[in-house]
Amino acid sequence: MTKLLNWLSPLQARTRHNDVRARRQDGLGEWFVKADEFVKWRDGKNEPGKTTLFCSGNPGVGKTFLR
Amino acid sequence: MVIDRLLDHFVGENVIVACVYCDFHDQERQTAATMIGALTRQIVKARGMVPNKIDEAFERAEREVGGGRLQVSESVKLLRAALTPVKRTFICIDALDECPDKHRSHLLTALHTICQASPGVQLFITGRPHIRDAVETLLPGCVQGISVCTNGEDIREYLEMELKHDPVPSEMNHTLKADIMKRIPEKIPNRYVMVNSISKVLSDY
Fold this sequence. Notes:
heterodimer, A: mainly alpha, B: Rossmann fold, 2 domains, 9 helices, 4 strands
C-alpha cells in the first residue's frame, strides 16, 4: 500500500497541514467560517455550478492560516 | 482552519477532505501530476481501500522500465476513479499563486474536468488576487470569490494573546494596555491586513 501511495505522489500534504495547525492561533479567522460565502459553499447552496470558492488576499493577510 | 472545520462539520458523514499546499520552494517536486496524485493519495487513504482501476494502473507501471512515472492525464483518470463512490469531496488548494504558471494551468484544467465529471466535488482555492483571472478562466462559471480581510475582533484577540506573552511585563499597566487595545485596531488600514501587519504595528508601538 505504501509503495502504491508513493507512486501516486511523493507529496505528503497532511504533515504540512499539521505543521500549520500547530502555529495557528485559536479564534483567528473565526469570521471566515461564519461568512455567508463560506457557509453557502460548504452546504452546497451556491447557485448551480458554483462549486469553487476562491479566497484571495495579499501576502500576509493570513490565507494560509485559514486553510 | 477551513479543513478542520469541514472535517468537524461533516463528522460521521461520507465526506472526504483532501488538500495540496503549493510552495514556491518545492517547485521541483510540485508538478500538476504530483499535486493531483497527492489528492488521489489522500482519498485512497481516507477510504481505506484501493479502487481496482488504481491497483491495475500501479501494476502496469511497475512492469514498465523506470517505474512508470504518472503523467497528468493518467493522474486525472486515477483521481476520478478514486472519487467514484464518495458522496462529497472537498479539495483544498492553498497558495495557488506559488505554483508555476505551466503547472497551474494544467492543475486548474484537471480540476475543472474532475468537477464536471464528479458532481460531489467542491473546491476551495486560496491565492493572491493576481491569479483570479486564471482561476475564473480555467474554471468557467464555477467560481465564487471571497476576499480575505480581517475585522476588529480578530485584531483584538490577537493583541490580547500577544500581550499575555509580553517579554517585559513589569512595564505593562492597565492604562497602557487599554491604550494599546484602543489605538492599534485604529491603525490597521482598511481592516485588510492580518497577523503580519498587526505584529509590525505592535512592535513599532
